[in-house]
Amino acid sequence: MKNVQRIWTQGVALFGLSIIVGIAYNTTRIVSVPWIAQPIQLVNEMDRILKPVYEPSIKNISIDIAKQLVDKNIPFIDARDDEYYHEGHIPHAHSSGDLIKLTEYLDIAVGLFNPFVVYCSDDDCGSSEELAYQLQSEGFMNIYVFKGGWKEWNASGLPIEITSNE
Amino acid sequence: MNKYIQLGIRLIVGGLFIYASIDKIVDPSEFAKQINNYHIIPFGLENAIALILPWLELFTGIGLIMGIYLEGSTIWIFLLLISFIALMGQAILRGYNIECGCGLKEGQMIGLAKIFENVIMLIALYWVIIQPKKYFIIFPKTELEE
Q1: Are residues A67 and A132 in the same domain?
Q2: Reduced to 3 states, what is the DSSP secondary structure of residue A97?
Q3: Is B32 an interface residue toward A (CB < 8 Å)?
Q4: What tens digit of pLDDT does each residue of A71-122 get?
Q5: Cβ pair A35:B63 closer than 8 A
Q6: How far off is chain B from A35, nearest CA to CA, in Å?
Q7: Domain that includes residue A142, residue range
């Protein structure tokens, strides 16, 4: 009983110390991090999406907007593994593959300030957001995440494209 | 022999926890994004976790090596390892292909190898926990120490 009490006290002390130091460190940082993360904003206005953006921005889009952007030949990046990409993807979507090659492609296709879209399998997968943040750190400003991803696109009966993996 | 195995395990596991905490402390925003990719933390709490968890890893790592609050540190690391295994396991089962956010190596993805590493550490630490005699305890001094 005495041992349990001692371990409990030590555990609480270590946790308390971590909270206090975490608060102090975040308060004294030049750019402090908000304690509660804000969800990525959903954008529905096409005019707003098509305009160049000069400050880092990652926003979500719905399937209706995604479809319109495909029709307007806005680049789509498929963040899933290559094997899934080759089995089927949104028409003209580019596989994420090698980050260096992808940034070279986006540099030529859209430049740093024009929009492009990243998607993965569905709104539960993390790789589209992860890739979006990676591309943002490479300097791309105007990134949209299609949260519904491949599953929503395919389930909606929209056109798909299948490519050979050779 | 038991003494050196115990101290060796404490040094390796504690060292890994200290090392893993550094990048997370330096860039909590990046760590928060990595936590968010697991899609399991509700209410935007990934930021709060990213601001506190690395310090807990640092202090428990130091505690494990230096013998300061040794039992508390050992139990915390044990619980953290179980959480990491569960977190990665559910992500693998849900088909995620994401960075593990382990803090040991940039770009390291989740996978069975990472889970195996954590299981090995968990078993080693469990062995340390069940030893009746502990060694090199700076604070607090207890009857467990030889």
Answers
A1: yes
A2: coil
A3: yes
A4: 999 999 999 988 899 999 999 999 977 889 999 999 999 999 999 999 998 8
A5: no
A6: 5
A7: 46-155
Radius of gyration of chain A (CA): 21
Classify B109 as helix, strand or coil: strand
User: Quick one: A63 and A86 in the same domain?
Assistant: yes
Is-contact A148 A63, C-beta < 8 A?
Answer: yes
ipTM exceeds 0.90:
yes
C-beta separation of B125 from B78 below 8 A = yes
Two tokens at B48? 């709060």
User: Which residues in chain A (76-115) have CB-CB distances under 8 A to chain B?
Assistant: 80-81
B50/A contact by beta carbon, under 8 A: yes
Question: What is the radius of gyration, based on Cα positions, of chain B?
Answer: 16
A80 and A2 housed in the same domain: no
Would the CB atoms of A133 and B33 count as touching at under 8 Å?
yes
CA distance B86 to A42: 31
Report the chain A residue with the minimal C-alpha distance to residue B49: A35
